[in-house]
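Quick one: structure for this chain?
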Amino acid sequence: MAEAPRTDDDDPAAEPLVGDGVTAGIVRVGDTVRRPVRPFTATIQAYLAHLHSAGFTAAPVPLGIDEHGREILTYVPGDVPREPLPASAAGEDVLVALAQLIRRLHEAAQSWTPPTDATWGGIPGAAGTDRDPLGQNPELVGHRDYCPGNVVFREGLPAALIDFDLARPTTRLYEIANALYWWVPLMDPRDRAPTFVDLDAAHRVAVFADAYGATDRQRANLVPLAERMIHGFHQGARAAADRDPVFARMWEEGVKDRMPRAEAWIAREGAAIADRLTGHNGHAP
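Got it. Here's what it folds into:
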C-alpha cells in the first residue's frame, strides 16, 4: 500500500501555501512546492516539462514525486495578487505583459502532442471536453485558468504562471477570453474590484488583443466565445456547488449572483467590445 501523503505536522519544514482553498495540502519545502497527486498529475508534469524544453521558463519545473507520495514542483518566486485586486493591477502595462506572457506560453505549447492516455483535470460536476465553447478543434494545450491567484508578478508586472490544474487541449481564442474575463474584467461593475469599476472594458480588451497579436478572425469571434464561456462558467459553478463543499461555499458567498450578472453584462456590452476590436488599427491580419 502506498504511504499516505505527509501532513504539515509530519513535516516541520513545510510551509502551508493558502490560495483559493480548492486544493488542500499544498506546502512549500525550501525551493519546492509539494502538492497532492491527482489523476492528471503525470499529464501536467509532462506538459510542464515540454514547456521548459521549448524555452518557456515562466512556469514551475516538474520534479517528480517525493517519498511521501506528493508531487514536487519548483517554487516560483514573486507576488501573487489577492482579490479584490489592488490599483497597481489595473494598469494597461499589466494587460500588455500578461498578453505577451500567454503568447509565449502558446508558442512553446503548440509543438506538444499529449500522450494518448492523457488525463485532464476539471471543475467537479462539469463535463470534460477537449473543445472550446465555439466547438472549434483544439489548437494546443493551454492553461485555461488565468485568475489572479495563478499569475505571479515581479516588479509590478505578470512574469510567470502557476497552478496548471485546469490545463487541457483548447484554442488560443479561449485562452484570450479566459484571461480577459479575469483581468478586464468581463464582469458587471458591481462585481469588480473598486479600482476596476470605471475602466473602459472595450478599450482594455483591445489593448490585450493588440499585445497578444490577435488576428482578424480571433477578434471577430471573441465576443461570441466570451458569451458562451461565461454561460459555461455559470453552469459549471452551479454543477460544482452541488458536488463539492468548497464550490458550494463559493456559490453561496457570491458566485450565484455574480455569474448571472456577468452574463447580462456581456450581452449588453458585447457589441461595443466587438466594434472596438474590429475597428481597431494596427492589429495582425
